[in-house]
Amino acid sequence: MDDLRTAVVGVGATGAVLAAALINQDPDTILVDPRPGLGESIKESGLAISGEVSWHVPVRHFFERIEMMKDFRPNLIFLSTKTFHLPMVLEELKAVFKEGTKIVSTHNGLGTEDLIAETFGADAAFRMSLNYGVSLKGPTEVAMAFFNRPNHLGGLTESNKKLGSEVAKMLTDGGLDTECVDDIKLYVWKKMVMKCTMASICAVTDRTLKELIDFPPTREIAENSFKEVLAVAKAKGYDLGDDYLRTAFGYLEKVGLHKDSMCYDIAHKTPTEIDFLGGKVVQYGRELGIPTPFYIAMTNLVKAMEDAYLPKQQ
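The chain above was modelled as a monomer; its predicted structure follows.
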C-alpha cells in the first residue's frame, strides 16, 4: 500500500510500545486514547520505553476520540484497547473507515479479528500476536520485562500477504521484530491456549502461575482445562500436538512467578477480558459439540466475581 498513514487506538502499556515502534519509522503516527490528561502528558514528555528496548520518542498527533482523526485519513489502524471495548471501538471506527483501510487487532483473546471482518469485511482484518510483556511505570513510561522475538502478524485474506510483509518490516525496522505469517490464527491459538486456561484460575484463586501448578488441586483444574481447549483448537483446525501440555507446564514452571493480569482486573474492580478468553472457548465448544465443563466452571466463577462489583445495566 502506498502512502501508509498509521494510527494506534489505545495507548496503554501494549499500545505505547507499538506506537513508539511505529513513530520510530513514521513520526506522524496518530495516537488515540480517551484517558483524561493523557494527551497533555504525551505531548509534553513523549513515550519512553525501557527494559528489553530503550526508546524515547516525541508524539506529534494525539486525539481523545476516534472521530477526531478523520481529517488525517488513517489507513492502517492498530487496536490496542481492552477486548471488551472492541465492539464499541469498531462502531466508532465507522466514522473514519474508508475503502482500503486495514485494521490490526493486537488484543488478548480469541476471535477479535473475526469481529473486525464481520464489521468491515475480511480484507480489512489483520491480527497480531504479541510476544512481549510490559507494564506501565507512569502515564507515558512503559517497562518491557521480556520480548520473545518475533511478534507475528497476518491478514485474513491471501491478497493482504504483501501488505502484511511490508507492515512487519516497518515494525521490525522500528525495533519491534515482527514476522508476517500465512496463518495468523495458528499463532493466536498457540499463545491463547495458555492465556485462556490460566487467566481465570489465577483470577479466582489470586495466586501466581507457579503457585497454581505447584498446588495439586489447581494443577488438576489446569490440566483438565488444557485438555478441553486443545480439543476445541483441534476441532477448529489447529492441532497443537501431543507435546503441548508438557511444554506448557515446563514454560509455566520457568516463568510463572507472576499473576495473570486478570487478577489485577478483579482486585481493581474493573471489567475482565473473560468473554474473549475462557468465554470464547466455551462458546466454540458449544458450537462444535465439545464438552468444556472445567472451562464453563472457571468462566462462570469469574463472571460471578465481576457481577459483585460491576454496575448493573438497567
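The chain has twelve helices and twelve strands.
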